[in-house]
């Protein structure tokens, strides 16, 4: 029987377009490994952690993720897994299907802190920090955003001055820093007379503290901190030697945004599958609510946007693996996929009715988390302007 005359495979409501066929065996293996870990280790506890507003087992989770090879997994050498961009993306999808806070832990560790050292650090810095970070023994954080400067990092006030003996002295504040108060090392970006530079600040350095930010309504199962630098003295070799200027931190942000492109699909998938399961089991007026036209319209629209977002993420991942991915293209993915995941979460909540606000289901938790994901690594407006500049050649940022 020819391929043209062979019957198509059965329709799978959870993979309606057959996207799984586009993955190879190794990619599926990575995805399934992370999915199992999330189901066994995190899913039974995440609602409680979210309600309590803490991630009490973060150090244990980091070590377990290190054993999985998920930390800095797309980096080469120094104990890193050397995985493909698509494999890393699939891991981010599964982590965020569990919770955005867990994916943020991995993204900040690998795509921000570790990537900064791997891409811009000295060999000594790489040897000192990356193996321990890849194993999860050392957690890292990334200090760029400030209390008064988020979307405009060029106006940062944190300052590093070089003294006569070669030491650096840092003063300033950073805000909304994931992993900050549990990090063993902080990658801190500061203004110098030469331009913006990155510095590796070990925990416990005199003058450096990282008070945790409390009372969050989003990303509650995540450690978020302020970084305070009051006369922090660092040796000359604490500076990342291979970059001066904003291209250093922006290159790291592009890596993290790529992970969000995939992660948002995971949050959307969790919400959609919850709504689908609920609609086929919840009965009103004598039959499952999934048998009513308005509910089916919601499910169809959710599935459509979810599959489009997944295909976009996979396309960008293939381009990254081919060395052809541009930052503007990552902005397309971040802008679209987070926005659509939020729409899926809202629609899923209405399918669940009053149960949609209960933490017995993940939908409201995802909806709250996505409000943060929409903002960090570039707000909607910033990504619209990045795309707009790419389309017109005109800079509307100023």
Structure, explained:
There is one protein chain. The chain has helices spanning 25-52, 58-68, 85-98, 100-120, 123-134, 247-281, 293-321, 327-352, 363-375, 380-392, and strands spanning 140-143, 159-162, 168-178, 185-192, 195-202, 208-209, 224-234, 283-284, 287-288. It is α+β, with helices and mostly antiparallel strands and 398 residues long. It folds into 3 domains: 19-134, Acyl-CoA dehydrogenase/oxidase, N-terminal domain (Butyryl-Coa Dehydrogenase, subunit A, domain 1), CATH 1.10.540; 140-244, Beta Barrel (Butyryl-CoA Dehydrogenase, subunit A, domain 2), CATH 2.40.110.10; 248-392, Butyryl-CoA Dehydrogenase, subunit A, domain 3.
């Amino acid at each position: 029987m020819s391929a043209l005359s062979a019957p198509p495979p059965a329709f799978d409501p959870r993979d309606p377009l057959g996207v799984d066929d586009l993955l190879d065996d190794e990619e599926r293996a990575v995805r399934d490994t992370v999915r199992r870990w999330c189901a066994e280790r995190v899913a039974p506890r995440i609602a409680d952690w979210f309600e309590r507003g803490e991630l009490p087992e973060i150090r244990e989770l980091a070590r377990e993720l290190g054993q999985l090879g998920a930390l800095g997994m797309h980096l080469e050498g120094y104990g890193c897994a050397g995985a493909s961009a698509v494999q890393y993306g699939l891991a981010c999808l599964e982590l965020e299907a569990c919770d955005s806070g867990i994916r943020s832990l991995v993204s900040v560790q690998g795509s921000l802190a570790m990537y900064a050292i791997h891409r811009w650090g000295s060999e000594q810095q790489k040897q000192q920090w990356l193996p321990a970070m890849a194993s999860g023994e050392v957690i890292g954080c990334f200090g760029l955003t400030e209390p008064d400067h988020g979307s405009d990092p060029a106006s940062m006030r944190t300052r590093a001055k070089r003294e006569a003996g070669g030491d650096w002295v840092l003063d300033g504040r950073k805000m909304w820093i994931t992993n900050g108060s549990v990090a063993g090392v902080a990658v801190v970006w500061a203004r110098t007379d030469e331009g913006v530079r990155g510095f590796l600040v070990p925990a416990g350095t005199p003058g450096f503290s990282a008070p945790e930010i409390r009372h969050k309504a989003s990303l509650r199962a995540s450690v978020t901190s302020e970084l305070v630098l009051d006369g922090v003295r660092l040796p000359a070799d604490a500076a990342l030697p291979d970059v001066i200027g904003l291209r250093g931190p922006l290159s790291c942000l592009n890596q993290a945004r790529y992970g969000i492109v995939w992660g948002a699909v995971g949050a959307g998938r969790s919400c959609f599958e919850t709504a689908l399961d609920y609609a086929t089991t919840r009965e009103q007026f004598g039959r499952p609510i999934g048998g009513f036209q308005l509910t089916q319209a919601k499910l169809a629209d959710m599935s459509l946007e979810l599959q489009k977002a997944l295909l976009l993420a996979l396309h960008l991942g293939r381009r990254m693996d081919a060395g052809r991915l541009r930052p503007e293209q990552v902005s397309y993915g971040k802008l679209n996929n987070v926005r659509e995941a939020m729409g899926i979460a809202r629609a899923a909540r209405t399918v669940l009715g009053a149960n949609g606000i209960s933490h017995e289901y993940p939908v409201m938790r995802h909806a709250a988390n996505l409000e943060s994901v929409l903002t960090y690594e570039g707000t909607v407006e910033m990504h619209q302007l990045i795309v707009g500049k790419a389309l017109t050649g005109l800079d509307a940022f100023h």
